[in-house]
Specification:
This protein is mainly α. The chain has two domains: 5-77, no CATH class; 130-201, no CATH class. 54% of the residues lie in helices and 7% in strands. The protein contains eight helices and three strands; from the N terminus they run E-E-H-E-H-H-H-H-H-H-H. It has helices at residues 19-29, 54-77, 101-108, 113-128, 130-149, 156-164, 168-174, 180-194; strands at 5-9, 12-17, 36-39. Strands 2-1-3 form a three-stranded antiparallel beta sheet, with helices on both faces. The chain is flat.
């Protein structure tokens, strides 16, 4: 597994792929317009240091990729340190939860206790709200990219309203004047918000 990154120099797409691939393309393109690199799915900015020779740049990119994958693995699996006797580790993490006394009383009365009840409630909410959560993540990713790269383009504010109103046809029309590469990626991100299974929101 690797980070899917995308890089732009001004309005032009330079590369998309894992971080070393993107770093190599940026270094070889010698982009002078302040290239910007994003996670291609979430639109979170990614810092790549392009100073030095190609080998140095690639080594830094691999280090950033490894650190990103390590954070994801820890968040997904949890601590895998030594365990004593008992049930197998399921990636459980202990964190603070703040509730009112009546909430604790209700949780304590549930089968399996508070922790088991909370896990059941979270699992139910994840299934029930899956469509809404996908839409929200898609909207956030598209808006993050649009704000960074398209804020000075025509129809930006109107397109943003269409994005959050779940109005794909209007978004497509409003984004037509944008530079091709930026428009293509913004529409790809927005599609994650528009193509949501409405049945999962019921």
């Amino acid at each position: 597994m690797s980070t899917d990154a995308i890089a732009f120099a001004g309005p032009a797409l330079v590369a998309r792929g894992d971080l070393p691939t993107v770093a190599r393309a940026l270094k070889e393109a010698d982009a002078t317009r302040g290239p910007l690199v994003f996670d291609a799915v979430t639109s979170e900015p990614i810092e790549l240091d392009l100073r030095g020779n190609l080998a140095t740049v690639l080594a830094r990119a691999r280090a950033v990729e490894d650190a990103t994958m390590a954070r994801i693995a820890v968040a997904t699996v949890g601590d895998d340190g030594p365990r004593g006797p008992g049930r197998p580790r399921l990636g459980v993490q202990g964190r603070e939860v703040t509730l009112l006394p009546r909430h604790w009383d209700w949780l304590a009365a549930q089968p399996g206790g508070a922790s088991a009840a909370l896990r059941r409630l979270v699992d139910i909410a994840r299934v029930t709200n899956a469509g809404k959560d996908r839409r929200r993540r898609g909207q956030e990713a598209a808006y993050r990219f649009m704000s960074a790269m398209l804020g000075d383009q025509p129809n930006f504010e109107e397109a943003t309203r269409a994005l959050f109103a779940n109005d794909r046809p209007r978004f497509i029309v409003l984004s037509k004047p944008w530079p091709r590469d930026l428009r293509t990626h913004a529409r790809e991100l927005a599609d994650a918000a528009f193509t949501t299974d409405s049945a999962s929101d019921a």
